[in-house]
Structure formats: structure tokens, C-alpha cells
Amino acid sequence: MTKERRAENSPYITLCDEQLVSLMAEIVLLRRLAMLNEKTELPNARAFIQRYDELQREFVRCGKPDQKITIIYGDLTKFKVINEEYGDTVGDEVLLAVGQKLAEECQLRPGDFVANPHGDSFIILLIADTKKAACTVENRISRNVHQMRISARDKRGNMRTISPSIKLKYVISPVNKNINDLLRQIDCAHYEDPRSF
């Protein structure tokens, strides 16, 4: 029997192959988890930046480096009150429900992308370059989130209904803008009028 033949039949090689397949599956899972917010299962800040970079490359490749996009950014209003009155577990359920609603809303338009970078903040990337399109999506999302009803027990044990709401702002920007500059612009818009969030 040749060396090659013995190697093919070796249980050690088979074990290594199985371990390699298992290790590769774990790496794929870890990469996926590294891009998700653990509470809402939406893409996180890292995934948002990656998607923005991909869009930049796509538009440059298509010969449209000055294409404009819309970023809608917002926080849940009075989320701290929900956590205080109902507890963190219910707060997490509200975040998950709102995240799912935003994901549904973004499936209505191909190319739109929603992320939950942290806490109760959400960011939506739209392939839209007009105020009219941005306002239409912003208003629809705000309305549909506000129409949600979530039943939960407060800390006293009383069953109550939570009607979450989200205050959104948008920025229309060329896709070739540096992502850090764009995020600073969004933060400035937020801090100029913090009562609107």
C-alpha cells in the first residue's frame, strides 16, 4: 500500500476534515453574530458601516459616485420610562418588537437597510435622494410604530398596553461622503434638538 493510499484511509485525516468543517461553521456563525445587535437581532453599527461602504463601491462601479442617499436616524421616545415602569425585560421585548417592525418596513423597498447600532437607537439607510421620498418613508415608519400595541405587566403586576413611538430625523447626503463625517452630521442633528428624540 502506498503512502498516499494509507493517508486517504487514515482516520486522523477524516477527523481533521470534520474538525475543519466544524471550525469553519463556527467562524461563519461568529462573523454573523459580530454583525448583529443581540437584543433586536438587527444589524449593528459595524454592519451599517459595512453596508454603507458596499453602497459607495457599487455606485462608483456604476459611474454614479455623487448619488445621494438618505439616512433616517432616531430613538424610541420615553424608552427610559418604559424600563422604569415595566422593567428591563419588557424594555427588551419592546426593542425587539420595534426592530422587527422597522425590518418589515424596510422590506417594502429594495435596497433599504435598517440597523440598531446601540440601545434604543435605530438607523435606516434609504436609496432615496429627494426630501419627498425621505419624508414619505419617515412618516410611514413613525405612524406604523406608533400604531403598535404591546401588552405587558408593569412592575406592580398590572396588565397594561404599551404604544411605542419613535422620533425620526433624516439627512440626505452624497454616498461618497466619508462615513465618519456622515455619522458626525447625524449626531449634530440629534444634539441640536435633543427634545425631538
Care to describe what's here?
There is one protein chain. The protein has a 4-stranded antiparallel sheet with strand order 2-3-1-6, sandwiched between helices. Strands 4-5 form a two-stranded antiparallel sheet. The protein has 7 helices and 6 strands, in the order H-H-H-E-H-H-E-E-H-E-E-E-H. A hairpin with a 5-residue loop joins strand 4 and strand 5 (159-162). The protein is α+β, with helices and mostly antiparallel strands. The protein is 53% helix and 19% strand. The protein folds into 2 domains: 3-33; 38-196, Reverse transcriptase/Diguanylate cyclase domain (Alpha-Beta Plaits). Helix 4 (79-86) packs across helix 5.
User: What is the CATH third-level topology name of the largest domain?
Assistant: Alpha-Beta Plaits
- Could you give the order of strands across the largest sheet? 2-3-1-6
| Biggest beta sheet attributes | 4 strands, antiparallel
Helix content: 40-55%
Tally of helical segments: 7
Number of domains: 2
